[in-house]
Amino acid sequence: MSDEHAPMRWRMTSRFEIRMRSWDGETILYHSGSGDTHLLDQYQARVLEWLRSDPLTEKELEARLATMLDLEDDETLPPYVRKLLLDLQKLNIVEPAT
Hints:
39% of the residues lie in helices and 26% in strands. It is of the alpha+beta class. It has one domain (9-96): Outer Surface Protein A, domain 3, CATH 3.90.930. Strands 5-1-6 form a three-stranded antiparallel β-sheet. Strands 2-3-4 form a three-stranded antiparallel β-sheet. Helix 2 packs across helix 3 (77-90). The radius of gyration is 14 Å and the shape is globular.
């Protein structure tokens, strides 16, 4: 029995190769499908590293970021994570996990 109301899990795209390289606190992402490169901040890069390892929900990403930043009940994290995921989805970098 599947739960159609379960929170959506997100993952790195499986349709294209995504390469990431980091140095001096910056991360560059190369998208093989579009040929585009993107400069990521440390939080965006960390979220993508997590999603490369395991599909995660928005709440799980928020919790990991809160731990990383040593924050408790920060109301800015949910809209940040939501916008980040939607922006990355538009670029075909992340996708809903099936």
